Amino acid sequence: MMKGLILLVWCVAASAAVGLPLHTDTRWIVDGAGERVKLRCVNWVSHLEAVVAEGLSKQPIEEISNRIQWLGFNCVRLTWPLFLATNESLNSLTVRQSFQRLGLAEAIAGIQANNPFIIDLPLLKAFEAVVGKLGEGKLMVILDNHISKPGWCCSNFDGNGFFGDQYFNPDLWIKGLTRIATMFNGVNHVVAMSLRNELRGPKQNVNDWYRYMQRGAEAVHSANPDILIILSGLSYDRDLSFLKNQPINLTFTSKTVYEVHWYAFSDGSSWESGNSNQVCGRTTNNLMKMSGFLLQQGFPLFISEFGIDQRGTNVNDNRYLSCFLAVAAELDLDWAVWTLVGSYYLREGVVGLNEFYGILDWNWCNLRNSTFLQRISALQSPFQGPGLAERREYNVIFHPLSGLCVVRKSLLDPLTLGPCVDTDAWYYTPQKFLTLKGTYFCIQADEIGKQAKLGIICTVNNAKWDMISDSKLHLSSKSSNGSLVCLDVDSSTNEIVTNSCKCLSRDSSCDPSSQWFKLVNSTRSLGRGRSMINMVGSSLPNVATKFVDL
Ligand SMILES: *[C@@H]1O[C@H](CO)[C@@H](O)[C@H](O)[C@H]1NC(C)=O
Ligand SMILES: *[C@@H]1O[C@H](CO)[C@@H](O)[C@H](O)[C@H]1NC(C)=O
Ligand SMILES: *[C@@H]1O[C@H](CO)[C@@H](O)[C@H](O)[C@H]1NC(C)=O
Ligand SMILES: *[C@@H]1O[C@H](CO)[C@@H](O)[C@H](O)[C@H]1NC(C)=O
Ligand SMILES: *[C@@H]1O[C@H](CO)[C@@H](O)[C@H](O)[C@H]1NC(C)=O
């Protein structure tokens, strides 16, 4: 792993104006000029009992949105409970009254200090004001109907799971969606609505899915024709497999996006109890079967929730993340990380609950873990899609464990890891050589434990790289004495070396992810010279913005 301060890419293009509204062009989300806009979002929770966007008692909303943007995200998936839109005695409560009824005096004082503008607004107006502030912060917003009855989501028996459940009346849902869609008609930066989070529970069935999702989508479209409509699947947003043979019928085109959730715990504790290569292979195949096929059908796929315990102590989460990052990079998916939230006013009865999956810490002040941000930063710029500059597709050699890519400073320097925006272009040839664009050089294995080299005489003995194991994430070749080796990273120097291949199968005690590399197809523009790298300490507000040349 990288030593010292982490390096975060200061994405110069991040704040570039995007021509809204968005629409879809095959599997890509594009702007008015037809150029790709990659959604790289944070989830911001606003659907719990208080029905106020979390964190407003900790920091001014302008500070929080600046940080979101500064960290390279361009959008917020803002959650809302249906009853905010349909229950007048709820949505007419002021923010102050809402906290008072829950006995949250400290939150009131915090909001009074940090965001006084919102304290006496009725809840629905407060929601509107939050959305407005995010727009001022140059962030796009996706409004996600997360649940009906305000509270933590989700379980099979919480009455919010599927059409017909105790709190999930389809007609009321249509009414609420229509109201919110209407309210934000003409608000440019509200770019999408996701109709319902994590359908689930004993009542779920495919027929009702088509019936109601179709109605919901048409209702939102009529109320607000400018926004993308995001549809989620069954079984907690895991299953869209039924669309393979029966597409949904909608009266509009170029606006439908599908969403999917993928966590480590989606597969129980498989990651911890199994072999990482095998679990990664299995869960990736499953993703393609359940939802990934939609890309080939010409729909964008939005991973609207993924995330890990950022303390780094959850083995299941840690092993999953490298696999997730490899897949998300390869497919160049749009995504939203769970979650921005550092702590909640009140969650599941606990006041001030600390969110270990949160990007921000308990105080919404510092980054909880900068390593995590470095790893996902590789996914922030698009690799492919309409508007990207390079005509000939090349490969990026992505290393998910670090979030970095294989680069070389000069032909004489060793291969090492560096920021993916500054990557070299590689071609994976039909002979399975990895050649450097514009040269005859290819990557060659030497001996176990030695640096991988760039050489000019490429032979199948030491320059043919196979993608092996169930995960296909090991790049293997032969060392100079003919034994099987895998590309790896020397953790003390970040140099690219070859080692014996680690736990290719069966072994569940070892973690192969230092040897995981993904060849990502890219047409991202090259040769714009050294990009500026922003050195980010973990204390955001005080950080000096310092540019270094890597
Ligand atoms: C509407 O909200 C109020 C205030 O939270 C609550 O007491 C009431 O039960 C809600 N009504 C419905 C139908 O959910
Ligand atoms: C969509 O329309 C086609 C043709 O009218 C029909 O065969 C199909 O069953 C419809 N699908 C749904 C999900 O309603
Ligand atoms: C951040 O995450 C890394 C990798 O999982 C872990 O090793 C480290 O201990 C974490 N740091 C903090 C402060 O939680
Ligand atoms: C190749 O060298 C490694 C040590 O560098 C050794 O472990 C391995 O057995 C050797 N293989 C052959 C085929 O000689
Ligand atoms: C990457 O490009 C190769 C060669 O054009 C192609 O076979 C492969 O399907 C592409 N992968 C993805 C994920 O698009």
Automatic annotation (TrEMBL):
Belongs to the glycosyl hydrolase 5 (cellulase A) family. Pfam families: Cellulase (PF00150). Residues 69-340 form the Glycoside hydrolase family domain. Gene3D superfamilies: Glycosidases (3.20.20.80). SUPFAM superfamilies: (Trans)glycosidases, Ricin B-like lectins. Keywords: Glycosidase, Hydrolase, Signal. The keyword Isomerase does not apply. One of its GO terms (biological process) is polysaccharide catabolic process. The keyword Protease does not apply. InterPro entries: GH, Glyco_hydro_5, Ricin_B-like_lectins. Residues 1-16 form the signal peptide. This is Glycoside hydrolase family 5 domain-containing protein. One of its GO terms (molecular function) is hydrolase activity, hydrolyzing O-glycosyl compounds.
